[in-house]
Amino acid sequence: MSLAFNELSSVVLETPLPDLSVLRGVAVTALGVVAVVTGALVFRVDSMARATYLLAASFVAVGAAVVALHLDYVGVVVVLMMLMEMAVMGVFMVMLMGMNPALMPMSMVHSGRRALAAAGTSFVVLTVGILLVDWPTRPDAPPSDPGATTYSLGDALMGDHMLVMMVVSPVMLATIVAGVVLAQAHGRYERLGDDLRGTSRQGGRR
Amino acid sequence: MGEVVQVAAPWVLLAALLLGMAALGVAALDGALAARAACRPASVGAQHPLVETARLLRQRRRTTVAADTLLRHVAVGGFAVAPLLMVAVVPLGEWVLADASVGVVWFNAVDVLVWVLVWLAGWGPNAAWSLTGGYRFLAQAMAYELPLMFALTAPAVAAGSLRVGDVAGGQQGLPYVVWMPVAFLVYCVGVLAFSVRGPLSPAGGPVISSGVLAELSGVDRLLVLAGRAGLLVAGAAFAVPLFLGGGSGPLLPGWLWVLVKTALLTAALVVVRRRLPDVRPERFLALGWTVLLPAALLQLLVVSVVVVVRS
Question: What's this model's pTM, rounded to 2 decimal places?
Answer without folding.
Answer: 0.86
